[in-house]
Amino acid sequence: MSNSVKIVGPDSSAPVKISPPAGAVYSNVARLFATPNEVVLDFALNLNAFGPMVDEEAQIVSRVVTSYDGAKRLWMHLTQTLQAYEKKYGPIELDVAKRMKEAP
């Protein structure tokens, strides 16, 4: 995977180098809220995603605060990525119950 990011806009001539992250986290749920100046994305781990398994709430594993233009670029890239995935593998089913296979 490349560590450069393509910049969209007037300063798009030079790639920006991004150092690898210190560590990765897994998230299966996200919450979004906004202020007049920023968009805040909380990524969390919900251990009860498939029904009651543990007696605890979802734990936030990462929070990203970005500008509205940063959020729009993220939305554009996510849209392109999801469209390419669905073109190759088919639609992503959002209803967990429909994705579950019954036991034989």
TrEMBL record:
<protein>
    <submittedName>
        <fullName>Uncharacterized protein DUF3467</fullName>
    </submittedName>
</protein>
<dbReference type="Pfam" id="PF11950">
    <property type="entry name" value="DUF3467"/>
</dbReference>
<dbReference type="InterPro" id="IPR021857">
    <property type="entry name" value="DUF3467"/>
</dbReference>
